[in-house]
Design brief:
The chain has seven helices and no strands. With 152 residues, the protein is an all-alpha fold. The longest helix has 32 residues, at 106-137. The protein has helices at residues 7-10, 19-22, 26-35, 37-51, 61-74, 86-96, 106-137. The radius of gyration is 20 Å and the shape is elongated. Helix 5 (61-74) crosses helix 6 (86-96).
Length: 152
């Protein structure tokens, strides 16, 4: 039977609007996933299934690299100039491959998802702060109307 995907996994990573901006409930959803071990395991499983393109229940380097770069480009909107190079990706892959099998198991995959979720939460919080600062630049204008000029 189909496993119910947590909301943070169900969202399209191919949207023109960054997911972290489109989902105003994201910080709470991430907190819920990180707090509840059962929900976290379901989230890891859903991400793992999506990344395991050859369905062999293990991620090889190519599947891993595709997942990381797709996530960074689509969900975090990382510019191409800031994307990790092959050396960095290989080092991360090797660090996650604790049994040195040449593939990442679902159990080895969990720390990466935790890192992704924590990064998403941090990015969202940074964007929220920027948006609050920007709204301060325009003042508190109700209904988009400019305040009347002060009498002279």
């Amino acid at each position: 039977h189909q496993l119910s995907r947590p909301a943070i996994v169900r969202s399209s990573t191919h949207s023109s609007t960054p997911f972290i901006m489109a989902n105003r409930k994201l910080p709470q959803e991430i907190a819920d996933v990180l707090r509840d071990e059962n929900t976290f395991r379901k989230t890891v499983h859903a991400f793992f299934q999506d990344a395991d393109r050859d369905l062999n229940k293990a991620l090889d380097y190519d599947e891993f690299a595709a997942l990381v770069t797709d996530f960074m480009r689509s969900s975090l909107k990382v510019p191409a100039s800031q994307m990790p190079n092959a050396t960095v990706l290989r080092a991360k892959f090797d660090a996650l491959d604790r049994d040195h099998s040449g593939a990442i198991s679902e159990a080895e995959f969990g720390p990466l998802i935790r890192e992704f979720l924590e990064t998403m939460a941090k990015k969202y919080n940074e964007l929220e702060k920027q948006m609050q600062q920007m709204s301060g630049w325009f003042g508190d204008h109700k209904g988009g109307k400019r305040p009347a000029p002060a009498p002279k």
